[in-house]
């Protein structure tokens, strides 16, 4: 009996340790994909992997309901940043979207890099939501406006250069006071691979395994060998300069894509998490904040092949593919074990059928037209420079596009015509690292509308017309 009580006490300690003293690993889950796992299966997967916090990119009822009673801390998002600019609109919104799920929702995040839109109006909307939450007695639900790394001034050579952009000074003053008064952390969002490319660091700087060929020593003697600590401490410095040196920081988005970009693949993603997650769980903190627990949200749960993008990697941030298969080894508990995350159970795949280019005609221009049509109606980001299928020849690339289009339409017969150039095959046309996918059956997800993870991309990258780049040489 005594022994049982002790077990129970341990259990309670584990269950209650979410008190800000220990780091938390959460996960972001967007649904901008042609194939979507149903919410209850996702919640099961998160629980099996020991995930205690999740962020979704909507306030969709059926998704929130799937989290009810799960014990997972849920963050919902609103992108209607300017629509809640009146007291009544905000009250209505809170009453409809939040009040019924107040037992499940812990945080509300507003906007996607919201200050870049209309900073004052956004802040006023947030105040309206804040007042509406108080009105309904829901002040324990925390409101936040996530801040991406691009809000720091450019030309960052070391963390002590970190400073928020001048044009946002006033609104940041308001935000930081608000966060301090409400005991709420700043939410920062990181895109490590983008930072590395933008600043021409060696790829090794992306990983927290102390193997970087770039070693940066700051003015205070602190040494940085990875982009995570570098960017985190750049935010710490920026907060210090903005007069909010004690504000806690939650990393609301950090991850590594697996395709569509040089250096983005399953091996590098595995390496990225393999050292980052144990580092976070060690509560070691960063040079600027030693011993401070860092909560992070892994970005993200599954690939989103319908995400609008400016860089092709935007569709490849998932730990899971659209069909619930994990892409690489990752120990989401942060113990650094060499394990795959749990596989989704009960998901039905379509049969092993692929659509390929029959290659019979000599009409390259005609084939290219069909290729464009197929890509426009599906996802060809795997063909981008550095992508997993960028090595394919002309026939291979057209086949890849045809198959994507075919799978997006759940293998409908008429989705493999392409003016007589398409052909359904039953042998897997995958080529090395280039996978020709077969996805989940349509019934899995029709009733759940998409609402994708949002990324803050570097404007510099602009729209990459990589399709033309890859083909002009071949035509
Ligand atoms: C950043 O560096 C570039 C190139 O040296 C320079 O053109 C630009 O003005 C710098 N930007 C700022 C904000 O200092
Ligand atoms: C990182 O590597 C350097 C050089 O190899 C070494 O001096 C340092 O102790 C290492 N740091 C950690 C935390 O292992
Ligand atoms: C791409 O698809 C969209 C939506 O299906 C369509 O409106 C557009 O005309 C297409 N563009 C091209 C170049 O085919
Ligand atoms: C893989 O792709 C390359 C380039 O398209 C092609 O030459 C090769 O035959 C393909 N291999 C297989 C096994 O399909």
TrEMBL record:
The keyword Hydrolase applies. SUPFAM superfamilies: (Trans)glycosidases. Keywords: Disulfide bond, Glycosidase, Hydrolase, Signal. GO terms for molecular function: hydrolase activity, hydrolyzing O-glycosyl compounds. It comes from the Eukaryota. The keyword Signal applies. Residues 1-23 form the signal peptide. Gene3D superfamilies: 1.20.58.1040, Glycosidases (3.20.20.80). This is X8 domain-containing protein. It comes from Buddleja alternifolia. The lineage of its organism: Eukaryota, Viridiplantae, Streptophyta, Embryophyta, Tracheophyta.
């Amino acid at each position: 009996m005594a022994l049982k009580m002790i077990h129970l006490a341990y259990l309670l300690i584990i269950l209650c340790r979410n008190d800000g003293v220990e780091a938390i690993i959460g996960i972001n889950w967007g649904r901008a994909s042609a194939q979507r796992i149903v919410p209850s299966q996702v919640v099961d997967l998160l629980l099996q992997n020991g995930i205690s916090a999740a962020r979704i990119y909507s306030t969709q009822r059926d998704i929130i309901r799937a989290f009810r009673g799960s014990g997972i801390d849920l963050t919902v998002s609103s992108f209607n940043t300017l629509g809640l600019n009146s007291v009544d609109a905000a009250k209505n919104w809170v009453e409809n979207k939040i009040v019924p799920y107040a037992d499940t929702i812990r945080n509300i995040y507003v906007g996607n890099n919201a200050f870049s839109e209309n900073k004052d109006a956004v802040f006023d909307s947030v105040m309206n939501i804040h007042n509406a939450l108080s009105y309904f007695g829901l002040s324990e639900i925390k409101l936040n406006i996530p801040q991406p790394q691009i809000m720091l001034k450019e030309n960052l050579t070391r963390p002590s250069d970190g400073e928020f952009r001048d044009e946002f000074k006033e609104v940041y003053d308001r935000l930081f006071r608000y966060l301090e008064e409400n005991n709420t952390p700043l939410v920062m969002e990181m895109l490590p691979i983008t930072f590395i490319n933008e600043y021409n660091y060696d790829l090794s700087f992306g990983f927290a395994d102390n193997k970087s060929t770039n070693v940066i020593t700051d003015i205070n003697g602190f040494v940085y060998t990875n982009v995570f600590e570098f960017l985190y401490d750049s935010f710490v410095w920026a907060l210090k300069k903005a007069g909010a040196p004690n504000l806690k920081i939650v990393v609301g988005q950090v991850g590594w894509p697996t395709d569509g970009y040089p250096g983005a693949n399953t091996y590098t993603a595995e390496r990225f998490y393999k050292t980052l997650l144990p580092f976070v769980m060690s509560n070691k903190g960063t040079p600027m904040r030693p011993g401070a627990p860092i909560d992070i949200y892994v970005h993200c749960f599954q690939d989103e092949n319908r995400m609008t993008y400016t860089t092709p990697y935007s569709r490849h941030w998932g730990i899971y593919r659209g069909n619930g298969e994990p892409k690489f080894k990752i120990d989401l508990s942060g113990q650094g074990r060499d394990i795959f995350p749990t596989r989704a159970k009960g998901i039905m795949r379509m049969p092993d059928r692929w659509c390929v280019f029959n290659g019979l005609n000599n009409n390259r221009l005609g084939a290219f037209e069909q290729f464009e049509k197929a890509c426009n109606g599906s996802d060809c980001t795997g063909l981008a420079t550095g992508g997993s299928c960028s090595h394919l020849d002309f026939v291979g690339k057209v086949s890849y596009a045809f198959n994507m289009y075919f799978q997006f339409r759940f293998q409908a017969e008429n989705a493999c015509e392409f003016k007589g150039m398409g052909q359904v095959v039953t042998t897997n046309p995958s080529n090395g690292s280039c996978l020709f996918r077969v996805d989940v059956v349509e019934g899995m997800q029709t009733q759940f509308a998409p609402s994708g993870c949002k990324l803050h991309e570097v404007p510099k990258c602009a729209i990459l017309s990589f399709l033309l780049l890859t083909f002009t040489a071949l035509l």
